[in-house]
Amino acid sequence: MLEYSFRSLPYLVLSLRRNSQNYIMTIPSIDILSSIDSILRILLEIYNSYKSDIKMNKKLIEKFPAIGVKESKLESFIAREIWRIGSFIVFALNLTDILKKEYKNMHDKIGDEVNKKILKQREDAIKKYRRYRHKIFAHTAFASPKKKEDNCSMQVTSLKYFCGHLIGFTQQGIMLGGAKVVIGNEDCPNFEQLTFDKMVTDFHKYFGEWYEIYYNRCVELLDYSEEDIKTRISDSEILYIRKNI
Questions:
Q1: pLDDT tens digit string along 172-228?
Q2: Which of these, 60, 162, 181, 219, could form a disulfide with 156 (CB 3.0-4.6 Å)?
């Protein structure tokens, strides 16, 4: 899962002269594509850690509460699950923002307009995970509450999720979401339920779709003639153009 190679995408290589200086520019940026692949490897390692842990601790999740299992062992497993979920969400969502920025850069460098509908669809697809990041794993609503939306119920619910105190158990490990702490008359909107396995499945599909978007955009760029490119990049003298396929 999550085994994509953005670095292998086709790209343009442009040698430019601007303000009496020569430099090389690639569209998309090879450095950024390499960084994307590195973050995907980090996500894959977190996923591999999850698979290994689940395999070694089947008794903890086959029946809850687990019979004959020390409480300290169960608490350690929960802590590792929270660590994996939180780490995965933070890395995955930072990667989505990198993908979005470089996608915009690809258009800006060649003088094209970005398809804003695509970006909105991308953001809508991860809306629930963005909420988890902002309210729980980035800093918690408890530590950094928003005045208009984070009442006491939201703050305490956020803290309980972050500490691993408000969880359920499934065959895929712990489950977050669906529960909340209500203080007085202050209700707290529910967080959608998720397990680590479901989250990875969602992001596997999500990053696969991003890869297709990048691939299609790169193919479009390679279809431009040299004259088209020279016309679009009018603030520099283009010394040569190479198309890497």
A1: 999 999 999 999 999 998 999 999 999 999 999 999 999 999 999 999 999 999 999
A2: 181
Q: Does the pTM of the predicted model rise above 0.70?
A: yes
- Torsion, CA 58, CA 126, CA 82, CA 141, rounded to 10: -150
Q: Classify residue 210 as exposed, middle or buried by CB count within 10 Å of its CB (0-12, 13-18, 19+).
A: buried
- The CA-to-CA distance between both ends of the chain, in Å, stands at 25
Q: What digits encode the pLDDT tens for the residues 30-79?
A: 999 999 999 999 999 999 999 999 999 887 777 665 666 678 888 999 99
**Cβ 6 vs Cβ 211: under 8 Å:** yes
The three state secondary structure string of 25-63 is: EEECCHHHHHHHHHHHHHHHHHHHHHHHHHHHCHHHHHC
Distance of alpha carbon 159 from alpha carbon 14, whole angstroms? 50
Per the CB < 8 A criterion, the answer to whether 206 and 126 are in contact is yes
Distance, in Å, from the CA atom of 74 to the CA atom of 50, rounded to the nearest integer, reads 15
Q: Decide the pairing of beta strands 11-18 and 173-176.
A: unpaired
